[in-house]
Amino acid sequence: MKYMYLIKYLEPYAKNKSEELYRFIPADNVQDAILTAGYKHKVGNAYGVPVLEVTIDKELKDVNAK
Questions:
Q1: SS3 content of the chain, % helix, strand, coil (to 5)
Q2: Is the dihedral of CA 17, 18, 21, 27 positive or negative?
Q3: Percentage of the chain surpassing pLDDT 90?
Q4: Of 24, 26, 37, 41, whose CB neighbour count within 10 A is largest?
Q5: How many domains does the chain have?
Q6: Is residue 38 included in any domain, yes or no?
Q7: Are 7 and 42 in contact (CB under 8 A)?
Q8: Cα–Cα distance, 6 to 26 (Å, whole number)
Q9: Does residue 58 fall inside a structural domain?
Q10: What is the DSSP string of 20-40?
Q11: Residue 60 counted as domain residue
Q12: 2-50 tens-digit pLDDT
């Protein structure tokens, strides 16, 4: 079952270093959501951009389910 995760992180290039950004990532679990955010959006400790919060935004419905 997939969920839409909301990932909150700090903007690394902002003039105000406390500026927060949000990304919505569809994934099966939190681990996949964090890995996808890191791969696609360069978010995470490996990139020097700390993830502040990860929450489940909503459950995604399977469009192919009968």
A1: 25, 40, 35
A2: positive
A3: 33
A4: 37
A5: 1
A6: yes
A7: no
A8: 9
A9: no
A10: EEEEEEEESSHHHHHHHHHHH
A11: no
A12: 899 999 998 777 677 678 889 899 999 999 999 999 999 888 888 888 8
Helix or strand holding residue 51 (H, E): strand 51-59
pLDDT tens for 43-53 read 888 888 888 99
Q: Quick check: pTM over 0.90?
A: no
CA distance 47 to 50: 8
Judge residue 26's burial from the number of C-beta atoms within 10 Å of its C-beta, 0-12 exposed, 13-18 middle, 19 or more buried.
middle
Which residues are registered as beta bridge partners of 44? 49
**Which residue segment(s) compose the domain that 31 sits in?**
3-46
Structural domain contains residue 28: yes
